[in-house]
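> forwarded from #structure-qc
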């Protein structure tokens, strides 16, 4: 199901293109995340200003002990570190984010530093997705991240499917929201990348 957006193992440096790492934050059996991630991959494919790498947490066996020397942690490190920006695809679990996503964030530290982050949230309830996104903003503040003001959310996500299982059934609003968020994200990614090239952050 995920084959059309397999992660790129090692991104080539491409000065004019921004490297956006998309993090898929659900590992649950029967998850809806591939539908949201697949739709979002279509949105990024329309753009000529960025390349994406998809980090799907369900395909990665991160240890719970946050061991920085664990081989899986080391393997993933360049894909986190080399990103100019992130987009987190996050379902709402008990008004917050899934545990494995928090473990991923806690496993790395300087790799996240001073980068823009965009959010795509979803959930079963009326506010589904929004509360997870707002928690992510607080968490990423620890890394001096810039959280994009405008987000993409799919509250009551089951209403975004048609009878044939197509998602999202009325894409215009979500497409506009994704464009707005990605426009903000790429502006910040370019601005911060240029600034850090002139002077390392915090120096
Ligand atoms: C443990 C758990 C807690 C949940 N809590 C909420 C919640 O607080 N608000 C909400 O709108 N949906 C909640 N849901 C519903 C999920 O957001 C919904 O099932 C969504 O599809 C989960 O994403 P996934 O299918 O990709 O794992 C919860 C689901 C689970 C499994």
């Amino acid at each position: 199901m995920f084959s059309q957006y397999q992660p790129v193992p090692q991104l080539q440096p491409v000065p004019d293109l921004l490297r956006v790492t998309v993090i898929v934050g659900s590992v649950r059996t029967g998850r809806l995340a591939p539908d949201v991630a697949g739709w979002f991959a279509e949105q990024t494919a329309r753009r000529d200003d960025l390349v994406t790498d998809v980090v799907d947490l369900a395909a990665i066996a991160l240890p719970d002990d946050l061991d920085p020397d664990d081989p899986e942690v080391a393997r993933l490190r360049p894909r986190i570190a080399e990103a100019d920006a992130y987009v987190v695809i996050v379902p709402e679990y008990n008004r917050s984010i899934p545990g494995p996503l928090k473990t991923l964030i806690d496993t790395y530290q300087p790799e996240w530093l001073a980068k823009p982050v965009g959010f795509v949230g979803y959930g079963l309830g009326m506010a589904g997705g929004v509360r997870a996104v707002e928690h992510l903003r607080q968490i990423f503040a620890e890394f001096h991240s810039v959280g994009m003001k405008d987000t993409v959310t799919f509250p009551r996500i089951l209403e975004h499917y048609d009878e044939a299982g197509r998602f999202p059934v009325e894409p215009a609003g979500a497409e506009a929201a994704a464009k707005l968020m990605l426009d903000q994200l790429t502006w910040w990614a370019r601005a911060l990348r240029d600034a850090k090239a002139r002077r390392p952050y915090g120096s």
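QC bot note: The chain has one domain: 14-198. The helical segments are 33-45, 71-81, 99-107, 130-141, 172-198.
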